[in-house]
Specification:
single chain, alpha+beta, FAD/NAD(P)-binding domain, eight-stranded mixed beta sheet, 19 strands, about 30% helix, elongated, disordered C terminus
Length: about 400
């Protein structure tokens, strides 16, 4: 049998954070990369809040040169008990970036295109056939390697019998233009077992918008997520009142929370990002790991295609985080979440240490809390103008 003359060295399914990072890495190495995206453009109808942690900015060169108008710095967290008592948490030198996520995705897609990758939008992945040395995608040509970076319900995983996510949160987020919140330098996080069982609600001053959202276990009544959001907006009213204001946009979707899927790779195919379950089981954050492992996968696949190493699919998955501590925290949160307990324990060292693992990626390194301790927001502070 004659060797196949391949149309592509690698096809990446999904213009996600992970998919674009992988495509950029491979294209920069001189390989023929095609990115398939079913949406009209990267960044359309997103299911993510788009928060980037400091670790990503420090460690991932792909983000060097990120335009300042696409991001806004947030220096700490304000954590609320169910009764709305709150504490402020921060870590020396640590921050988050809220992003204009649709524009950020288009910027990343531009970097991939500049590197030489071909972007093919409005092109859903339908099926795939294994052939000698790679794959054939009907109507789309052949490829030596295939990447599934196509979200939590990956079509690539389904088509090739790879592992699939089975545990989910369901999230809903509103964006409000021209709005303001008190303490815009904080990521506001709300614990409430009734409204957000298994997770939290949140509010932050993003790039030109205020983002308000909540997520809950899918085992909860998903059809009532809109009702839960209405109740959450009512609860927020003493702090920032968005009731009666139509959101400029709405994001919604499933968020994997069960850790890395079993069998995230096979011969010449690899799952990345949400498709692989590379999402923190506690914070539901995955931008950092998606970019990090997307770039690393690109380098490993480039070495394989150049004949410098064996197929990296099996060994590369071993580099994925196991999330052991965070999975344990998720189990505890799922089974023992109690509004009464959080109301009573909000200001304790135990809660602060757990928050250090969740929000700042390390334990117990916080700035000193104000001497007056936890405080309840007054209506006056909610109505005060925010310093944007």
């Amino acid at each position: 049998m004659s060797a196949v003359n391949f149309d592509n060295d690698c096809v990446v399914v999904g213009a996600s954070f992970a998919g674009l990072a992988c495509a950029t890495s491979l294209a920069r190495a001189g390989f023929r990369v095609r990115v398939l995206e079913k949406k009209a453009e990267p960044g359309e109808k997103l299911h993510t809040s788009g928060i980037i942690v400091k670790d990503a900015i420090d460690q991932i060169a792909l983000l060097d040169g990120l335009p300042s108008e696409l991001a806004r710095r947030i220096d700490g967290v304000r954590l609320y008990a169910p009764c709305l008592r709150s504490i402020d948490l921060s870590a020396p030198g640590y921050y988050f970036l809220a992003t204009d996520t649709p524009r950020l995705m288009r910027w990343l897609a531009g970097r991939a295109t500049e590197a030489g990758a071909t972007m093919q939008c409005r092109t859903p992945f339908a099926s795939v056939e294994r052939i000698e040395g790679g794959f054939r995608l009907p109507g789309l040509g052949t490829t030596r390697f295939l990447i599934g970076a196509d979200g939590p319900n990956s079509a690539v995983a389904r088509a090739l019998g790879l592992g699939r996510n089975t545990e989910f949160l369901f999230g809903l987020e509103h964006e409000y233009r021209g709005a303001a919140i008190p303490s815009p330098e904080r990521l506001h996080c709300f614990i409430d077992r009734r409204l957000a069982p298994g997770y939290i609600g949140w509010m932050l001053a993003g790039v030109g918008v205020v983002q308000v959202g909540l997520a809950r276990r899918v085992s909860s009544v998903r059809s009532d997520i809109k009702g839960a959001m209405r109740a959450f907006l009512g609860k927020l009213a003493p702090i920032a009142d968005f009731r009666g204001i139509p959101p400029a946009s709405v994001r919604a979707g499933r968020i994997p929370c069960g850790g890395v899927v079993r069998k995230a790779a096979a011969r010449r195919v690899l799952l990345l990002g949400d498709a692989a379950g590379l999402v923190s089981p506690v914070t539901a954050g995955g931008v950092h790991t998606a970019l990090k492992h997307g770039l690393a996968a690109g380098h490993a696949i480039a070495d394989f295609l150049a004949g410098r190493r064996e197929d990296p699919s099996g060994t590369f998955v071993a580099t994925y985080p196991r999330y052991r501590v965070k999975r344990a925290l998720r189990w505890c949160y799922d089974h023992f979440q109690s509004d009464i307990v959080f109301d009573l324990m909000l200001g304790t060292r135990l809660v602060r240490t757990a928050a250090g693992i969740v929000y700042f990626h390390h334990k117990g390194v916080f700035d000193e809390l104000p001497s007056e301790g936890p405080t309840r927001f007054a209506r006056e502070s909610a109505e005060a103008p925010a310093n944007q």
